[in-house]
Amino acid sequence: MTSTVPNAVQHTDAQPPITMFGPDFPYAYDDFLAHPAGLGQIPATEHGTEVAVIGGGLSGIVAAYELMKMGLKPVVYEADQIGGRLRTVGFEGCDGDLTAEMGAMRFPPSSTALQHYIDLVGLKTQPFPNPLAESTPSTVVDLKGESHYATSVDDLPQVYRDVMNAWNSCLEEGADFSDMNRALRERDVPKIREIWSKLVEKLDNQTFYGFLCDSEAFKSFRHREIFGQVGFGTGGWDTDFPNSILEILRVVYTEADDHHRGIVGGSQQLPLRMWDREPQKIVHWAPGTSLSSLHEGGVPKPAVTRLDRTAGNRVTVTDSLGDIRTYQAAIFTAQSWMLLSKIACDDTLFPIDHWTAMERTHYMESSKLFVPVDRPFWLDKDEETGRDVMSMTLTDRMTRGTYLLDDGPDKPAVICLSYTWCDDSLKWLPLSANERMEVMLKSLGEIYPKVDIRKHIIGNPVTVSWENEPYFMGAFKANLPGHYRYQRRLFTHFMQESLPADKRGIFLAGDDISWTAGWAEGAVTTALNAVWGVMNHLGGSTDATNPGPGDVYDEIAPVELPED
Questions:
Q1: Are 106 and 260 in contact (CB under 8 A)?
Q2: Number of Cβ atoms within 10 Å of the Cβ of 2
Q3: Does residue 161 sit in helix, strand or coil?
Q4: Residue 228 has what pLDDT?
Q5: Helix axes 269-276, 112-120, angle to 10 degrees
Q6: Which secondary structure element, helix H or strand E, spans residue 180, and what is its range?
Q7: Pick from 176, 214, 260, 287: CA 20 to 30 A from residue 274's CA?
Q8: What is the DSSP string of 507-533?
Q9: In this model, does residue 107 exceed pLDDT 70?
Q10: How far apart are CA 365 and CA 243, in angstroms?
Q11: Is the four-CA dihedral 77, 78, 83, 84 of positive or negative sign?
């Protein structure tokens, strides 16, 4: 049977680009976005209809932008600032071009739907200096008080290469890595589904660490320990060890941890530019219309405090100023825990099993601390060794990961002194920004005793602990073993034909609804699912030549595990 999954983009290279569209729902969102027919249309009688979009992060802004293009009137609610976890901040008293990425800061080429919007608003990207990346001048791995300097993995002691080889063997033997990677590249939907359905049934109850322990390649505890502390790609993996191995396989299959790029000038520019962008192709609205122009004063409405199901199966939204509005449709893009705590909700908004899934969502903690410095002094050479005086650093000390970010040899630069997750993040939580900096400088001083980092600092540190942010309560979702069924309920919520009428009309989106949480691509793709859902709910449809995610759902629906 011929696939109905769209393939408008021609992939002619011997190695076609991989995309983060699978393996759970192998839909080509990049082809959908690139198709000249657009994402769909709604009946003219619905033009100008208001749709609530709750949350002004990337998912909310993408959803609102595409709804606007269809002729609907998105009403965006945002409790804090446009961007969500695309948050770029400056340093007080420093040049405005000197910024820190408090949330998302590195994006893989496989984020093809995200790249569509990056290109749309004219942003540029550049290589991100991950450990041992080609663009990273040097990396230091410091474990148990012993440091190793490297410009590539070949410079590290043999045990590190043994660990890398063990990981590759583990993936091949336990997860059919080569076959799945090839199927994803070729967009071979039947093959993807064949491989993945078996793995979901086999591995849903398995932790990442248990998966390693079951592999002959990782029978050595020392190898597992080094892998946890150093890993390969973005760094150590041990904070993910309690999570479901299915979460990790999604990352490695789609190369989400490889070849990262950062957005020049900061990632928050993406949603901000989309907020102000005036689409060339737009239905119903006059040329020059933007999301900004559709909102009074050019700003979103404030925080949502209450959501109710009201007569006619409408959704009624109350905001923090007491304004009450009722909508035929709404998209909720904030983190789902907000529905359990910050927002008073009518229980009838969602089916009970969806409430259970939201309650069981597991979020990872994450902390960062940045300091501005006078110049990229780390590129200075040690007179004795000829090496860089400081490097991108992976360590088992408190800092864990230190990243060096510059825009040229003679310009001020930025150091991310520490980027940590989970328990490592919680260790920082009680400390102020300055207290954190002092501990970090002490740890790095033990690795680089010749380097006086402090003398180069030109401003106060900036920090974030996402678990302490009131409108986030965590950095990103990470499923635990046994959570596949919960995630499936949340991801597939945009398909509402089988729901009772009084459970339709409000749609979930955002990266914690996606299968690839922690990546901006998941925010974009779930937004597009929700846009399709709203369009369908209001009687609209896609062009026959460009079927949307809901149109091909039966062909590529995620594996459904038994509930008994």
A1: yes
A2: 4
A3: helix
A4: 95
A5: 60
A6: helix 177-186
A7: 260
A8: EE-STTTSSSTTSHHHHHHHHHHHHHH
A9: yes
A10: 13
A11: negative
Q: Are 506 and 396 in contact (CB under 8 A)?
A: no
Contact 65, 88 (CB under 8 A): no
Alpha-carbon torsion (520, 526, 527, 532), positive or negative: positive
Q: What's the confidence (pLDDT) of residue 7?
A: 34
User: Which residue shows structure tokens 């099993």?
Assistant: 353
Q: Rounded distance, CA 342 to CA 359, Å?
A: 14
Quick one: DSSP state of residue 474?
S
Residue 394 backbone dihedrals phi, psi, to 5 degrees = -115, 130
Q: Would you state the pLDDT for residue 13?
A: 47
The tens digit of pLDDT for each residue in 524-563 reads 999 999 999 999 999 999 999 999 999 999 999 999 999 9
Distance, in Å, from the CA atom of 299 to the CA atom of 321, rounded to the nearest integer, reads 14
- HEC sequence for 340-370: HCCCEECHHHCCHHHHHHHHHCCEECEEEEE
* Residue-level length of the chain: 564
Number of other residues whose CB lies within 10 A of the CB of residue 122: 9
Question: By C-alpha distance, which of 17, 18, 19, 31 is closest to 545?
Answer: 31
For the record, the structure tokens of 279 come out as 């689409």
Q: Coil, strand or helix: which one is 451?
A: coil
pLDDT per position as a tens digit, 15-50: 556 777 779 999 999 999 999 999 999 999 999 999
